[in-house]
Amino acid sequence: MTTGRPPVVRRAPGKLFVAGEYAVVEPGNPAILVAVDRGVTATVTEPAGPGVLVSSDLLTAPVRWLRRGEELEPVGVEDADRARRELAHVLAALRTVTRLLAEHGRPAPELDIAISSELHQDGVKFGLGSSGAVTVATVAAVAAHCGLTLSAEERYRLALLASAELDPKGSGGDLAASTWGGWIAYRAPDRAAVLDLVRRRGVAGALAEPWPGFEVRRLPPPRGVALEVGWTGTPASTTELVSGLHRRAWRGTPPHRRFVAASADLVRAAADAIEHGDRPALLDSVRRARRELARLDEEAGLGVFTPALTALCDAAEAVGGAAKPSGAGGGDCGIALLELPDTRAAAETPDARATPDTRADAETPDTRTAPDTAGPHASHHSHAGATGASPDIDHLRQRWTSAGVRPLDLRPATEGNEE
Fold first, then answer.
1. At a CB cut-off of 8 Å and minimum separation 6, what does 108 contact?
2. Helical H runs in 181-278?
3. Helix (H, G, I), strand (E, B) or coil at 28
4. Exposure string over 186-196, b if 16+ CB within 10 A, otherwise e
C-alpha cells in the first residue's frame, strides 16, 4: 500500500505558564507562556495496512484503528479504553484534519502515525503541556502528509478545535506556545463561540472567520534573567483542576472577578517589563502571580499549592528570585526567575535603566534574532543567552533537591511547530 512518499515529521515544543493561569480560561484574558526545548514529535508515513496505525512511546505496542462511519475503532487490542485514553489527543487531531479534508471533497486518509515524546519519564508526565504538544504536532504532520498548506494560525486553530472536542474549558495557551514557540502573550478565544461557528460554517469556515477574544503576539526573551524549572515528581491533571473551578460556586462571585482583574493587571505588567527590559518589575509580577494563585487556592479550595510547590517557591525567594507553580498546580512543575549577577549589578548603575539594551546586553547576542538563524532545536537560557550557573542558581538547585524537587534541564525554545 506504500507509494514511496517520504515520511512527514513535525515537532512541537512543550510549554510553561509564566503568568495568567486559571484567569486565561476566560475569553480575552491574558497570559504569558514560554515554549521549552523538549517536545513531541509526530511522524506520518504511508500505511502498511488498512485504516490508521498509531504507535506511541506511552503504549507497549502500536494500535490499528479502522473506520466505522466517522469514528475510529481499535482492533486487536486487549485494553481498548486505555488505547482511547492514551491516544485521545492524537485521534482528535486526526478527526479534525479529516473533517477539513472532507469539506474539500477529500477522502479520509489512511496512514501510520508514530508519536515520541520528551515530556514524560517512564510514562509519568512532567506537566509541560504534552497534550497540547502532541495535538499540534499531529495536526501539522497529518495535514502536511495530506498536502494541506497551513499557516501557523491555521494549525493552531485546528489544534484548538481538536482539543475543544475533548475539553472545551481549556484555554489553548499550550497550543499557542507549541505553535509559535518562544515567549508569547496570549488571549484565549471564546470557545463556545468558536464551536458554534464550526457547527454553522464547518471547519474551513472556522479557519477563515475572526475568533472573538483571540490574540497572540511574540515577546522578546527577558534579558539578564535565568529561568529555572523544578519538577515535584507528582503528576497533576489540568483538566480536573480547571473543571473543579468551573464546578464551584466561587466562580462568578466578586472574589472571582477580582482574581481575573488582578491576573490581567499583573500579566500586563509582566509583558511590559519583558518588553522594556525591566527585570525587577518582571520578578515582582511573578511574585504577585504567586500571591494571586495562593489567594485563589484559599478561596476556592482547588489544591493548587502542594507542599513541594510551596517549598519550590520559598527556596527561590530565599535566594532573591521569584517563583510560582506553572499551570494549574496540584503537582507537576514550578518555575523560578532569577536575575543574573552581572546584569543585576548593571541594573543598579544610575544610567542602566535609561539604556536597558546597552549595558545589560553588552556581552550577550541579541537572541530575538535567533528564530531566523538557529535550527529547530536551538534554545537559550531565558536571558536567553546565559551560559553556566550563577551561585544563586546553584543554591536554588541545592535547596530544591533537599526539598525533594527535581531541577529540570530545560531552556526556552525559540522555535515552535514549523511547517
1. 67, 98, 101, 102
2. 191-208, 238-247, 254-276
3. coil
4. bbbbbbeebbe
Q: What are phi and psi of 194, to 5 degrees?
A: -65, -45
Q: Each residue of 76-121: pLDDT tens digit?
A: 888 889 899 999 999 999 999 999 999 999 999 999 999 999 998 8
- CB-based contact 165:92 (threshold 8 Å): yes
Planar angle of CA 145, 87, 202, nearest 5 degrees: 60
pLDDT band at residue 389, thresholds of 50, 70 and 90?
Answer: low
Give the pLDDT band of residue 379 (cuts 50, 70, 90).
very low
Task: Report how far residue 194's alpha carbon sits from residue 214's, in angstroms, rounded to the nearest whole number.
Answer: 10
Question: How high is the mean pLDDT of the chain?
Answer: 86
The H-or-E segment that residue 373 falls in is: helix 370-373
**Cα–Cα distance between 268 and 216 in angstroms, integer?**
13
pTM: 0.86
Give yes or no for residue 345 having a pLDDT over 60: no
DSSP secondary structure of 258-326: HHHHHHHHHHHHHHHHHHHT-HHHHHHHHHHHHHHHHHHHHHH------HHHHHHHHHHHHTT-EEEES
Using only the alpha carbons of the chain, give its radius of gyration.
22
CB 231 within 8 A of CB 406: yes
The C-alpha atoms of residue 319 and residue 393 are separated, in whole angstroms, by 8
* 333 burial via Cβ count (<10 Å: 0-12, 13-18, 19+): buried
